[in-house]
């Protein structure tokens, strides 16, 4: 009996080491712009180019990911100034808008004021980052950053001086990157690295749960996993490159037929991309297999009545099959039904974004350099 009590108390103690960062499922840029009657004009100006952040070309191409909807609130400085950020496993820097920025995107978002923080220090470098949603330029600085109850001292972050136009339509103020330091602009130490180095988490891993429909319940858990968020076992997949969370994908199949990624390909698990994105020809093939018709913007629409009869799509990762049903890959709105398969251009890289992560709880182990996936509960 005594032995079991010890085990139990150890489990209780361990569960207290998890730090929860609640995510809000908020309005997307698409919804906001549709309500304002600006969406049609907007998307002509800003084509969808989700691969932009994975191929830094230095060009100022403005693109949109109009469907990002998960945000968390962090604070920076002493006393704390609060910001909503996208927790992005597809980039590695933290930045927020600042009082030194005059871009439209800074006018309608919260702005950090260094003069109001007693722990703020200026850095000596400028910062420039390209995303799938556009770009930001600014300055590096350091301050205390509080994330999910964890207070990280001397965190280097960016304060924006200019932001791309599309960012004015985003609900989030800034972005908190959770990928590896090897891809961080100016080689800045990422927030999660500092959590590990400063001994603030019990394990060098974090996990992401994205709830499907409800606005509440989604969260990032720092320091481990929460078994309430998944069923069955976690399948561990080694990273093929520890830059982004990049893994090897064997194939994409529908009804046993290979419809994409024939002969294998590379995929990135990315919370900062809303859709499942692949090479345009592969995505077009998948969309036609599920009975969707693609419009001039690469969006694939389906009849909402057909969702029940549409096939599952299976992504085989490192020998393990992960199946996504139509109820998960089709999104419904008052404007109709669309598939969550987005065209990524000619690049042979895939992005398994929020459409995939809603279906599969994702665990990011930075030390073992692997990703764990389990069926979301």
Automatic annotation (TrEMBL):
Q: List the disulfide bonds.
A: 101-106, 261-265, 304-337
Q: Which EC class, in a word?
A: hydrolase
**Highest taxon listed in the record's lineage:** Eukaryota
Membrane-crossing residues? none
Q: What is its EC number?
A: 3.4.23.1
The Peptidase A1 domain sits at 70-374
What is the designated name of this protein? pepsin A
Which gene is annotated as encoding this protein in its UniProt record? LOC115584588
